[in-house]
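hiii so um. not sure if this is the right channel but i have a protein structure encoded as tokens and i wanna go backwards to a sequence. like what aa goes where. can anyone help
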């Protein structure tokens, strides 16, 4: 007989950093070596959805991610997060185990910050289940799951203050999604495969072998965080884009300086960097801001009025196949570009040696900034969530 059963579901979005987190000062607490800053994207296009059921009929705490059961033994990261939240909430869980089912609507571990959305969502639903609802507190808990997850507890632009202990290392919202409504992001999904070296392994390698990291953390990042914060508050895309691209470049420079080197970008990523740089110089100002995480996929921040034009350029330079079939665009609808402008840009790209690379981008996601996690009514349908 079922005496107790409760289910809660939430959705949380991916965030894409413009000032990158890379390196930890404390592995266990996931305290970062430097502050970082990101945009939280629209959950309509890139999100994790997590349902948690509690019942006295469950024998143990269990977790399934995208249909596959995950390790929830003592010492695993999700179990640690669960135990931590229970202990803060002073919950006696002996007779109330949880079953957790989580899905992403985008590729996991492809350098698309899937763990950020996943752990933000997990911390958020667990917190709501056990009565911890303050987003700042939840950001600290999500951080224990995956560092960058702390930033997904807020929408819009978010600053992760590195702090020096569990309490001081937390995310703070700089501006909500409505502050800069024209801001858009286009994700170029280049490779759905799982990446070679995980972020945690990569970070450790960089912080122990790269001689550039100290300068980055002590000198470069604090200055960039200040400057990009004011660029965001003043809606100055030119400055925002320059700092974003420079920080992505520097992050990949310290990856290359690691030993053995971490090579997250591929030929397609580099062609996208070239394409964006040529377009920016053609316009005489930054209209595109590329950034790459620990994988080859590009995220390009841009303003609304350039979206249609840019999608058509990507479709021209990265057709789905040699037969010229069109590159798929997921996410928001988009309109027709100005053909004359497209032709001029294409000519200039060709003149500057940007190659057409058929089949190298799998699809685009046309998206925008979004909100922090939300509880939703619609629970995931899964036999494992039944009492
Ligand atoms: C390149 O947050 O995935 O995306 O804390 O070890 O789980 P762990 O790492 P994770 O690292 C993300 C690194 C990054 C940059 C960023 O998002 O700031």
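sure thing!! here u go:
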């Amino acid at each position: 007989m079922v005496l107790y059963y409760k289910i809660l579901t939430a959705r949380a979005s991916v965030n894409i950093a413009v000032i990158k987190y890379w390196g930890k000062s404390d592995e266990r607490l996931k305290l970062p070596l430097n502050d970082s800053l990101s945009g939280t994207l629209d959950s309509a296009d890139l999100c994790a959805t997590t349902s948690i059921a509690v019942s006295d009929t469950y024998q143990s705490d269990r977790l399934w991610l995208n249909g596959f059961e995950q390790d929830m033994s003592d010492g695993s990261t999700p179990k640690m997060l669960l135990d931590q939240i229970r202990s803060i909430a002073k919950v006696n869980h002996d007779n109330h185990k949880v079953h957790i089912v989580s899905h992403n609507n985008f590729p996991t571990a492809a350098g698309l910050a899937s763990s950020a959305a996943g752990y933000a969502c997990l911390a958020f639903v667990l917190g709501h289940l056990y009565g911890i609802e303050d987003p700042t507190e939840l950001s600290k808990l999500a951080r224990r799951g995956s560092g960058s997850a702390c930033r997904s507890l807020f929408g819009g632009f978010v600053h992760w203050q590195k702090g020096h202990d569990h309490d001081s290392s937390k995310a703070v919202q700089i501006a909500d999604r409505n502050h800069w409504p024209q801001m858009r992001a286009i994700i170029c999904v280049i490779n759905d495969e799982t990446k070679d070296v995980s972020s945690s392994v990569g970070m450790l390698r960089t912080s122990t072998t790269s001689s550039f990291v100290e300068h980055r953390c002590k000198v470069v990042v604090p200055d960039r965080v200040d400057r990009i914060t004011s660029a965001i508050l003043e809606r100055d895309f030119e400055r925002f884009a320059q700092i974003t691209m420079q920080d992505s470049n520097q992050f990949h420079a310290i990856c290359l300086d690691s030993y053995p080197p971490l090579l997250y970008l591929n030929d397609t990523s580099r062609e996208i960097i070239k394409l964006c740089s040529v377009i920016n110089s053609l316009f005489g100002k930054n209209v595109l801001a590329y950034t790459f995480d620990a994988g080859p996929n590009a995220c390009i921040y841009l303003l609304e009025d350039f979206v249609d034009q840019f999608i058509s350029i990507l479709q021209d330079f990265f057709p789905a196949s040699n037969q010229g079939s069109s590159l798929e665009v997921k996410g928001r609808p988009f309109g027709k570009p100005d053909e004359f402008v497209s032709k001029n840009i294409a000519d200039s790209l060709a003149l500057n040696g940007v190659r057409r690379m058929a089949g190298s981008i799998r699809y685009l996601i046309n998206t925008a900034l979004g909100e922090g996690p939300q509880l939703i009514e619609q629970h995931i349908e899964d036999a494992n969530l039944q009492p």
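oh and Residues 329 and 364 are 5 Å apart (CA to CA).
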